[in-house]
Specification:
The protein has helices at 5-8, 25-30, 42-50, 69-85, and strands at 10-13, 34-37, 91-94, 97-99, 106-108, 111-114. By secondary structure, it is an alpha+beta fold. The chain has a single domain, classed as D-amino Acid Aminotransferase, Chain A, domain 1, CATH 3.30.470. It is globular and about 45 Å long.
Length: 115
């Protein structure tokens, strides 16, 4: 029996900072990820954002403005809900998610969805 993405996969989150040299191979090597079972609610999404080692970079470093953490949490919640509502989705990858300063939101640049 085939199971849906929402029942067999965890929601995984990591930060990909190409301008901070933390991404791709570094994230995989350092295992700087956090997981939750779908559905991810607000508190769980906020904990995911705060739960990675690189989370301090979101606060704004070296003159950069703080990132819109609420937008990241909202994206995690919505992706989780998508996994629940569309059981035919077997894999979903959003990379990258570009996050602006506080209040400016986030933009999905590329997505891959397998049915």
């Amino acid at each position: 029996m085939e199971t849906s993405l929402s029942t067999r996969l965890l929601i995984c989150y990591h930060i990909y900072f190409c301008d901070k040299l933390l991404g791709g191979i570094w994230v995989e090597t350092l295992r700087d990820v956090t997981f939750r079972l779908a559905p991810v609610r607000r508190y769980g999404a906020e904990r995911m954002v705060a739960g990675i080692r690189a989370a301090n970079l979101l606060a704004g470093v070296r003159g950069a403005p703080p990132a819109d953490r609420a937008a990241i949490a909202t994206c995690l919640q919505r992706l989780s809900q998508l996994a629940i509502e569309l059981p035919e989705v077997t894999e979903l990858d959003i990379n990258p998610l570009i996050v602006g300063p506080v209040g400016s939101g986030a933009t999905v640049v590329d997505a891959r969805i397998l049915l």
